[in-house]
Amino acid sequence: MNEIPVPYLRANQTGIVAFVILAVVIQNPLIVALLWLIEVSGLLFGAKANLFIRLAKPFLTKWVAKSQTEARELTRFNNTLAVIFLTLSLILFGLGLSLAGYIVAGLLAIVAFVAICGYCLGCFLYFQYKQFRNRNNCTRA
Prior knowledge:
By secondary structure, the protein is mainly alpha-helical. It is built from six helices and two strands; from the N terminus they run E-H-H-H-E-H-H-H. The protein has helices spanning 6-26, 29-45, 51-64, 72-94, 98-117, 121-140, and strands at 3-5, 69-71. A two-stranded antiparallel ribbon has the order 1-2. It is globular. The termini are far apart.
């Protein structure tokens, strides 16, 4: 399967938002570390390894059959961005900059929430990246 059903992506985005909110509310960076592990597992082993998708899958079978899909390449790009944000957040926590760590994690949660609402910032960035790459490849020929 080269495409990932959108309900699975929404489950992951919802998990990101929920975990960041939980981390901020209880002031525990270990929640962000756990979120990082979940997202890295999805990045390394695919969507099937993502805990949020695995937990939501039994409840989404009704919607998956008739849902839109997203390209695996685009999903991987967005997941990489999430891992970068979470890694930066954890580095900031490690440096004792807790407020900055929560802000970076919060930015990721905002982007994930906006994606749930229908506008994917990562998709926009991916499109811009592809256009930039294509423009540079055309000028070299």
